[in-house]
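User: I'll paste a sequence; please echo it back and then give the predicted structure.

Assistant: Echoing your sequence first, then the prediction.
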Amino acid sequence: MIVLGLTGSIGMGKSTTAEMFADEGVPVHSADAAVHRLYAGLAAPLIEAAFPGTVTAGVVDRRRLGAAVVGNREAMRRLEAIVHPLVREEEETFIDAARRSGADMVVLDIPLLFETGAETRCDKVLVVSAPPAVQRARVLARPGMSEAAFDAILASQLPDAQKRARADFVIDTAQGLEPARRRVREILSALRAMPVASSAQDR
């Protein structure tokens, strides 16, 4: 079973691209979705203990948590030490289930794939990208997003050029939905034509 890592900086169109793979019948695991589930479940009491006042009615208040950790590297490391292992457990359960179901491929949608070393768990990596002006316009159009917050997020992520340089495949999402969908299908064809070898998850 091929494990394709999907990543890209904020505002690059990663979630939309992940949906395109799902539309093609490929099982997709979203790290962001896993975090949302964990913030309303297993991770909530652990985060409240580490960052008092950030949980309301058993659910992490993302605004309060953001205020506690954004721009604070030590606090961010503490949060990641809580959340990342739990997300990894969900990911492993997902991969096992996909393998048992006979899937020939899965996509791991991981925002900080290179930053966390997750590429070692993937056979190939796809990076979604767009010109800086397009990225900035997309992100600043989001409710509650400010220039300062956007710049802080960018500073925490590997630069787009470095991600593209390390990728096996790149999709320029600024070209539009249909060109991106065609590229997704091309990548699937290329991956399925690869010689059979042991998956990164088996090594």
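Residues 32-102 form one domain. Strands lie at 2-7, 28-30, 55-56, 59-60, 105-109, 124-129, 169-172.
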